[in-house]
Specification:
Length: 144
Amino acid sequence: MSVRSDVSPSTLGVVVNDDTIVVEYLDGRRVTYRDEPQRMLGAVRCQPGKHVHVLVTDPTTSEGVMVYINDRKTHDDILEATGVGRIVLDSNESAEVFPGVTARMDGHAVVVEADLSIAGGRVFVFEEDDLGERAFEIVGEESD
């Protein structure tokens, strides 16, 4: 397996509906997350071994920024062409993914925490592998 580095994300087009989230990459391709996000208070602990994507949307536009956490398969050039960022974490390491959004390793699991008063938008976490996907939205105490 080759070593991968962090890649800065670009602003992407995003459409959030009740039951789907569509992200348009810089190269024109789109991905649709079809799993209605489960609302989680403050943090999401993903299952070990899953691909983890974090999306923070701008509440005033239909834009957002996406980062893959610990993706070691996608080449840097592909991420740069699509506008998706990447953060690679070692065991017990943490990093600020976006202002107010932190990812950290807990054993082999990724934990994403958000302070929505700082993040300023909606924070989604997608966990997937060949068997399926799950979607989460990190919410604050004031949300239903």
